[in-house]
Amino acid sequence: MKTVLVFIALLVAVQSNKLVPKAKGDVKVQCSETIQVGNASYTFYKCPKDYYGAVEMCTSKDKKNNLLSIHSHEFHVKVIEKLKHYNITSYEIWIGATKGKWSNTYYWTDGSQMDYQYWARGSPSHGFFYSACVLMETKEPGYWHDVDCYKRRPFVCESKPGKSHSR
């Protein structure tokens, strides 16, 4: 009986090892798709994380990398087109906009100015007393929603060579 239990325990351990990546590098290889647009590269991670885990994943390789920030409608449309091209249309993804508790002001995690917004009707809905993070629909037209930061969703990181924002 002991031998059977040990065998089952080993079998479970081996199988769970195959299912769960051990390191961030493994997650990046198994869950990501990177596209190049001009000098910048954008990596879509289909393995969901909460907002804070997504930020950590983006900045783990290089502190200049961040969740995607969008500064024009033209760029917003290009992002949706690229996601559509790669058949990434059945998701809501984290982008780099957030706000803290005791504030109504949203900002980009890369420190750049929040000079463009594309809110869905009824959004933003999180008031002064609540923190919130922003999801973008990947299907057209790509509206934004403010939600609880602990929801697990896919996300997009951006890497722009030589660009760094300070807050």
Task: Provide a descriptive summary of the structure in words.
By secondary structure, the chain is an alpha+beta fold. The protein has one domain: Mannose-Binding Protein A, Chain A. The strands form 2 sheets. The protein has a 4-stranded antiparallel β-sheet with strand order 1-2-8-3. The chain is globular. The N terminus and C terminus are likely disordered.
What's this entry about, in short?
It is built from four helices and eight strands; from the N terminus they run H-H-E-E-H-E-H-E-E-E-E-E. By secondary structure, it is of the alpha+beta class.
Please state roughly what percent of the residues sit in beta strands, choosing from under 5%, 5-15%, 15-25%, 25-35%, 35-45% or over 45%.
25-35%
Form type = globular
C-alpha termini separation: 62 Å
* Global Rg: 19 Å
State the helicity in percent bands.
Answer: 25-40%
By CATH, the superfamily comes out as Mannose-Binding Protein A, subunit A
Query: Low-confidence spans: pLDDT under 50, at least 5 residues?
Result: 3-27, 163-167
What is the succession of H and E elements? HHEEHEHEEEEE
Structural class: alpha+beta
Q: If you average the pLDDT, what whole number results?
A: 78
Strand order of the largest sheet: 1-2-8-3
Q: CATH first level: which class?
A: Alpha Beta
CATH architectural arrangement: Roll
Largest beta-sheet characterization:
4 strands, antiparallel
How many separate helices? 4
Work out the count of structural domains: 1
- Number of separate strands: 8
